[in-house]
Design goal:
The protein is 44% helix and 12% strand. By secondary structure, the protein is of the alpha/beta class. The chain has 2 domains: 33-47 and 126-254, HAD superfamily/HAD-like (Rossmann fold), CATH 3.40.50; 49-122, Putative phosphatase, domain 2 (DNA polymerase, domain 1).
């Protein structure tokens, strides 16, 4: 999902809102089956803003444009490769899309600058509310996993940076399916790993398109809508929406 200049420059690293974006608790769709596990996309846990801040650092005044073009092309390439059965992992897709984005903006991206921007994904850290929320869920007996387009290395580095070793039962990269989300083959990894019914696994999404993909697959879905984006017009809605992981914890406890 693209970020504009105001969004990624004005959000303070520690300033995570805690209010629910969903209307009222009564408006949430309660899962019919007890939630036994949660499969997280990467970005409800990991804060991507330093990646885009580095783009501004390297290209002052053009960082937002580069970030938006990069992120948009990143997912377009992932989806196009999946649809065309020409799979490449998310690291390769991310690098290719960065090179294209720089060319499209007529920016002179050196190899050193490319590497610095790519390395930012391996230095990524967690949102401030992530670790407390995960500890609460783990203590409640909820099983946790990542289910992400990120490569296994990207997920492992983020976990190490955040001090979250041992908190996730599974690190499910789309690489295992050779298909990026929202392909059903990617979402099916959660069912296969947890050995649970899909309705027993809550999917925690960062992007509206991921909400739609997970719902189409059959997961109950919580949208961690940190950027307060409008819902996608795709004919499906999440079971609940919140601006942070505290809202997700409340939803799971109430379900």
């Amino acid at each position: 999902m693209p970020f504009n200049r105001r969004e990624f420059l004005s959000l303070a690293p520690g300033g995570v809102a805690t209010s629910l974006l969903a209307a009222k608790a009564s408006a949430e769709v309660r899962p019919k089956t007890e939630i036994k596990a949660i499969a997280f996309d990467a970005f409800p846990i990991f804060d991507p803003r330093p990646v885009f801040a580095r783009a501004e650092e390297l290209f002052p005044g053009r960082g937002a444009d580069l970030s938006n073009a990069w992120r948009t092309r990143q997912f377009e390439y992932a989806w196009l490769r999946t649809l065309s059965h020409r799979y490449a992992d998310f690291w390769e897709v991310t690098q290719d899309s960065l090179i294209y984005a720089a060319k499209s903006l007529k920016l002179d991206l050196s190899a050193a600058q490319r590497d610095r921007l790519m390395e930012a994904y391996l230095e990524i850290r967690a949102w401030p509310d992530a670790l407390p929320a995960l500890k609460t869920l783990q203590a409640a007996g909820v099983r946790l996993a990542f289910l992400s387009n990120f490569t296994s290395k990207m997920l492992a580095e983020g976990i190490r940076n955040a001090g979250m070793e041992g908190m996730f039962e599974h690190l499910l990269s789309a690489d295992r399916a050779h298909a990026h989300k929202p392909d059903p083959r990617a979402y099916r990894l959660g069912v296969e790993a947890f050995k649970l019914k899909r309705e027993e696994i809550l999917f925690a999404a960062f992007a509206g398109w991921d909400v739609a993909g997970a719902k189409w697959f059959g997961y109950p879905t919580f949208w961690v809508n940190r950027l307060k984006q409008p819902g996608e017009e795709l004919g499906v809605t999440p079971d609940a929406v919140g601006s942070d992981l505290e809202a997700l914890v409340r939803f799971v406890k109430a379900s």
